[in-house]
Amino acid sequence: MQGHLIFSFLQEGNGKVSRVIRMGTRKSQLARIQTDSVAGRLRELYPDVHLEIVAMSTIGDKILDTALSKIGEKSLFTKELENALERNEVDIVVHSLKDLPTSLPPGFTIGAILQRENPHDAVVLHPKNAGLTLDSLPERSVIGTSSLRRAAQLKKRFPQLEFENIRGNLNTRLKKLDEKDDYAAIILAAAGLKRMGWESRISQILGPEDCMYAVGQGALAVEVRAQDKDILEMVSVLHHPDTVLQCISERAFLRQLEGGCSVPVAVHTEVKGSMLYLTGAVYSLDGADCLKDTMQTVVEIDNKVSESAQECVHVGVTANSVSSSALEAAEKLGMDLANALLNKGAKDILTTARKLNDAR
């Protein structure tokens, strides 16, 4: 990792020189929309900065015939983007936070977590099933999902339905649903549908009693080189404190469990006043075995922020603008909840799920 920052400048027609910041993104339509939304925020805050968007394909975008949980690569949607960041080809990268592993490669950090969109999952029905719900669909209806977490929870909650893998970006999955008769419905993140302007396709939002969400779901993250202090400072104004605290507790929970997309782990977090509540669960692949618990902690904002970026990195997130005691409490909450589940036997459930998934 290079220890210096390469500046790019642009001479404008009026003789004014602008700093150029290159933003890396995946090529999918949703990724571009998400990156454009972050770029829009940055342009409002820093009108003199010239932003260039660099789009690229990742492993996860290229391998479309295999379930994500089977590919066995932790950074499916992030590796190529991080390579570009390391080579100074881009200066910041916009991700869906749920795609970012809980441990980032050395030299990288999450410099901003933006306000979370609705983190829940949504049911999108085949047009012929309009007006129905997962409860009222005919028995043995096939539901498409690429997520072990969704399938495990929904198999337990809706045993009369069948669940099959479906891959591809949002556009591809909706096309597969609408143009074929293979699926009665598919399950997608509500946040992605909303950002794409497809809210009208949402038939049902799944609450935590039906399906808890993935770690970081619904939140956008801005990844930067850790030594680029000026860029880190620039993007840090995008941090949304409540979302930061929720996502740090969720990421700490997942990291302590040593979970990933090859095991069913789900969460639900809420900030109420000065309290942060975290519910976390692990499941067997068929949803029959489940360990679930809720814990809470006080995350009062004490206005004491860290002076040093090194002192304030929590599960890959640098948030010097957020109360350091609140950040520490959020991280400890995630670890404590994971340890409580591990003490009840979560390790066995996760190990079995991993082995069964690998054997498929």
Automatic annotation (TrEMBL):
EC number, as in UniProt: 2.5.1.61
Q: Which GO terms describe its molecular function?
A: hydroxymethylbilane synthase activity
Which pathway is recorded for this entry? Porphyrin-containing compound metabolism; protoporphyrin-IX biosynthesis; coproporphyrinogen-III from 5-aminolevulinate: step 2/4
**CDD domains given in the database record:** PBP2_HuPBGD_like
The chain's coiled-coil residues are none
Q: Which reaction does it catalyse?
A: 4 porphobilinogen + H2O = hydroxymethylbilane + 4 NH4(+)
Entry keyword set? Acetylation, Cytoplasm, Phosphoprotein, Porphyrin biosynthesis, Transferase
Q: Which GO terms describe its cellular component?
A: cytosol
Q: Which cofactor does it need?
A: dipyrromethane
Name its cellular compartments.
Cytoplasm, Cytosol
What positions does the domain Porphobilinogen deaminase C-terminal occupy? 245-308
Which is a GO BP term held by this UniProt record? protoporphyrinogen IX biosynthetic process
Outline the extent of the Porphobilinogen deaminase N-terminal domain.
21-232
UniProt keyword Membrane, yes or no: no
Q: Name one Pfam family in it.
A: Porphobil_deamC
* Top EC category: transferase
Job of this protein: As part of the heme biosynthetic pathway, catalyzes the sequential polymerization of four molecules of porphobilinogen to form hydroxymethylbilane, also known as preuroporphyrinogen. Catalysis begins with the assembly of the dipyrromethane cofactor by the apoenzyme from two molecules of porphobilinogen or from preuroporphyrinogen. The covalently linked cofactor acts as a primer, around which the tetrapyrrole product is assembled. In the last step of catalysis, the product, preuroporphyrinogen, is released, leaving the cofactor bound to the holodeaminase intact.
Assembly with partners or alone:
Monomer.
Q: Which family does it belong to?
A: Belongs to the HMBS family.
Record's protein name:
Porphobilinogen deaminase
**Gene that encodes it:** hmbsa
